[in-house]
Amino acid sequence: YPLLNEKEIRQRHDGVEELAEDYQGRQELRARLRGVQDLERLAGRIVSGSAHGRDLVAAKDSLCLLGPLKEKLKEHRSQSVISVREKLRELPQVVDLVGKALVDDPPATVKEGGVIRLGYHAELDELRALRQNAKDWIARFEGSERKRTGINSLKVRYNRVFGYYIEVTKSQLKSVPPDYIRKQTLVNGERYITPELKEYEAKVLNSEQEIVKLELSLFGEVREKVASYYGEMRETSQALATLDVLIALAEAAASHHLVRPRVDSDLAISIREGRHPVVEAAVGRGAFVPNDCSVEPDSRQILMLTGPNMAGKSTYMRQVALIVILAQMGSFVPAAEARIGLVDRIFTRIGAADYLARGESTFMVEMRETAHILRHATARSLILLDEVGRGTSTFDGISIAWSVAEYLHESAHRPRTLFATHYHELTDLALTNERVKNFNFAVKEWKGEVIFLRTLVEGAASRSYGIHVGHLAGLPPSVVERAKEILRNLEGGELDEKGRPRLARGRGGEEPAQMGLFSAVERRLSEELKKLDVSIMTPVEALNILNALVEQAKEEKE
Q: Quick check: 306 and 424 in contact, CB under 8 A?
């Protein structure tokens, strides 16, 4: 997880750097960790009383691997790795107890039997022997009774109704001793029992239940003793998890060309040739276009990002956020160089979603999120705003987005902000707000096609190329061509007889369309002013022309 303490962040970076530079050592540590089970989960099951024999054996086997692992960690000098080694507890008491009490490969549940190791408990061993040697005992008993009674045809048999019994034929009944108890008379003989035989029968028949009962009791005792070491096991599991993460971050740094960032208490974020790690993995390192980012509260507080749809604005903002998170969690980052002024929170207003259960529209959700950002952002916050105001009418949306940008600019905290928008009017904020800087993602038009260069350049974009994106998305050609006609007329400021912006003719009537921020009257006056050459005018001529333009504007407004 990301940290806010510079010292702790540096220690993590030290550990990642040391492991990244030691390929052989890193691979050996990975191999040793593969045999270690999830000790924290196992410890939780043990202390809650839900662990089975396999859980205890897995915990014991994992603890047995810690000795060699600790020896290997002695080779490392970074404080984060040393801290891991110091927190590892081998717990020989647990290893010894489980090793003596439980078999190496216990069944899935204790009730299946066979969990407790032979030799651990004398009574259990006796019961098991009784169960396993029942046939031998019966054979010995039968032989001894034949010898004692002189009845050579005497047999000891078993059925589910009577259990074990002695069967004697009629011709031998006179030799039956007085201690035999008659149970059943047959046509050809008699069936008897003896106290000794019934006692043994009771032992044999009850041995299974007794074994299960005793094993459950013994296993519970072992589990309870192991549970008393829960604190040490949990600390060990957390240390192992930290080591696992450090190794994974080192592997990522070495495999994906990541660099060690500099994290300090300054408020500047400076990234050279930053990359989005997930997108880069999808498209390939050579295909991804890296971009710089420099944002700080004194002169570049708000980066106003414009450019076509699909040019890379949202990816760029997410990329910056990911680099900040990676840097503060102790990871190396996908960039040529990065300096990160500590960030306490990353606020985002990205995407579109509604909450139907609460009766909130997409725009209401957007406004709630924006309000939350404005109330809680601090000087150390990083704010990502993507298309604020797009969920309502153009004028309302521009007004809200403009006001939000001004609010952030005038805030005493001056939070670092990336502000992506298709409202190109917002780029005028840079004219009156010194800490707002315009950037756009460059495109190239070639043979009627739009090529996305994915490169961030200084300055404002002039177009969004939304119709081109619609074409790429598969809109019918007739829809695309019609959209181009309408766009040309809207951009030309042509008005109909009612003073409304004229749409392309011949498609089922003319409807008023949503206009830009500035009216056609204002655009015409602007064109008239551009034609004037004040260098050849006298003051009186200039005043007369200005007065004429004012009167013209008043008439057209009426």
A: yes
* Integer Cα distance of 142 and 170 in angstroms: 18
H/E element holding 302? strand 302-306
String of DSSP letters for 25-87: HHHHHHHHHHT---HHHHHHHHHHT---HHHHHHHHHHHHTHHHHHHHHTT---HHHHHHHHH
Give domain 262-463's CATH number out of 3.40.50.1100, 3.30.420.10, 3.40.50.300, 2.30.110.10. Answer: 3.40.50.300
Q: List own/partner pairs for 115-122 with CB under 8 A and 24 or more apart.
A: 115/53, 115/215, 115/219, 116/215, 116/218, 116/219, 120/218, 121/214, 121/218
Total H helices, total E strands in the chain: 20, 14
Domain ranges in the chain are 6-91+229-255, 124-212, 262-463, 522-558
Q: What is the pLDDT of residue 499?
A: 56
List, for the chain, all residue ranges whose pLDDT scores fall below the cut of 70.
Answer: 352-357, 359, 448, 492-524, 556-558
Separation of alpha carbons 66 and 69, rounded Å: 5
Three-state DSSP class for 210? helix
**Closest to 369 in 3D by CA, of 387, 392, 347:** 347
